Amino acid sequence: MPQRSTQECDLRFSGQRFSVEYHIHRSAAEARARADLLCIEQTVEAADHVIPSGAIRDQLLGRVIELESLSPALHRAVISFPTELLDGSVSTLLHMTFGMASLRGQVRATDLSLPDDVVSHMVGPRFGSPGLRELLQVPKRPLVCAVLKPLGFSPQQLAALAYEFALGEIDMIKDDQSLGDQPFCRFEERIARCVDAVSEASRQTGKRCLYAPHISSPWPILMERAGRAQKAGAGALLVCPGLTGFDAMASLARLPSVSLPLVSHPDFLGSHYVSPNSGIAPSVLFGLLPRLAGADISIYPTYGLTYPISQADCRQIAASCRRSLGSCPPIFPTAAGRMTASRIDEMGALYGRDLVYILGSDLRREPQEIQTACREFLRLVEKEMPSP
Questions:
Q1: Which among 143, 193, 203, 313 is placed 20 to 30 Å from 62, CA to CA?
Q2: Hey, what CATH topology would domain 128-383 get?
Q3: How many CB atoms lie within 10 A of CB 54?
Q4: Helices assigned H by DSSP within 122-186
Q5: pLDDT tens-place string over residues 188-229
Q6: At what angle do helices 370-383 and 344-351 cross, to 10 degrees?
Q7: Residue 182 pairs with which residues in a beta bridge?
């Protein structure tokens, strides 16, 4: 039987497309050329002379639908792609939107616009902010999460600290991202002791507190740790998608046997956003992508510290966590990074009520007064809570 011609193609396209917004740091002529190149590189990645006529050239390639100048050396391009390029995984979404572009520089992915049908095939959060509020029975105010640190503490020491936090009526307690399965702090012993400590404190206060152990690890150890954490009584899971991959987190979010809220941590993702001229904008990296991959809470650095992130970036991350996105529920943005009581009013004005404060070492300035410090922070959060 003769081979079919490479010009023949059985491709069928619905006509439905998704779009990606890029900022291109070039002159006008160079920006136009780069936008045209993105249409090819983000799809077939082939020389023009090998792209056949017909469906591949006419429908599969990207299309520049907007190109505008923001300044003489900065241009905004919006490029659409057929939805048939996507398969419901975050890996393919990342590849098709920024895979090859990430290797060149001077291009930044700043937004994604996805049809509802595409979103419906993504995992999305299991709880989202509404479900997490219901789980914790905290209907209105921002949530407060404490962190177990430093690395080097034994499981007993971390459990004692968790006990103090929970007695202070904190909503959540998470491991520091540095905690793994070190010989001086084994994963299973840490989980067991911290779960027992938080459970005992919750019995005394009558208030639920969720403990989120850090489970990032190689596959399939990640899944094993998730299952062990749930069986031990953990209330949530902390995952670093920069270490494990976004689809690993998505797998947890869809796993029937693990039905816990997921907290996304930005460890190892920094190089994607620190340069304003390339990479992925914080609103996509810390807002949209964790949400599509199943996170219920997204942690990222707060502006005004030593991180290259602005107030506008944080506002846009929060917008990406909450904006209408098909059937995908909103998730919680965070105020994290040496957060102190002095910034409660500022954070409340920026984020509103749907926010999680991630508290670090400031709660422990007076080791004998941790419970008091927790309750005082909660009191101030209630007091400064913005009007609906």
A1: 313
A2: TIM Barrel (3.20.20)
A3: 13
A4: 128-136, 155-167
A5: 999 999 999 999 999 999 999 999 999 999 999 999 999 999
A6: 40
A7: 185
Question: Which pLDDT band holds residue 101 (cuts at 50, 70, 90)?
Answer: very high
Q: How far is CA 133 from CA 85, 94, 196, 252, 306, in A?
A: 36, 30, 23, 20, 31
At 107-165, the pLDDT tens digits run 999 999 999 999 999 999 999 999 999 999 999 999 999 999 999 999 999 999 999 99
Give start-end residues of each CATH 3.30.70.150 domain in the chain. Answer: 17-120
Q: Which residues contact 273 (CB under 8 A, 6 or more apart)?
A: 279, 280, 281, 282, 285, 286, 308, 309
* Order of all β-strands in the sheet with 262-264: 237-239, 262-264, 297-298
Q: Kindly report, residue by residue over 289-304, the tens digit of the pLDDT.
A: 999 999 999 999 999 9
| Residue appearing with tokens 């990430």 | 102
Q: How far apart are CA 20 and CA 276, in angstroms?
A: 17
Count of CB atoms situated within 10 Å of the CB of 349:
10
Question: Of 204, 235, 258, which Cα lies nearest the Cα of 132?
Answer: 235
Q: Hey, what are 63's tokens? A: 């299309």
Q: ω into residue 142 within 30 of 0, thus cis?
A: no
In the block, tokens 């990645």 appear at: 45
Q: Which two tokens stand for residue 4?
A: 């079919």
Burial of 189 (0-12, 13-18, 19+ CB in 10 A): middle
Query: 156: closest CA among 192, 111, 121?
Result: 192
Identify the DSSP state of 277: T
Whole-number Å distance between alpha carbons of 185 and 291: 31
CA distance linking residue 341 with residue 352, whole number of Å: 16
Query: What residues are paired with 332 via a beta bridge?
Result: 297
C-alpha to C-alpha distance for 166 and 237, rounded to whole angstroms:
17
CATH class (in words) of the domain with range 17-120: alpha beta
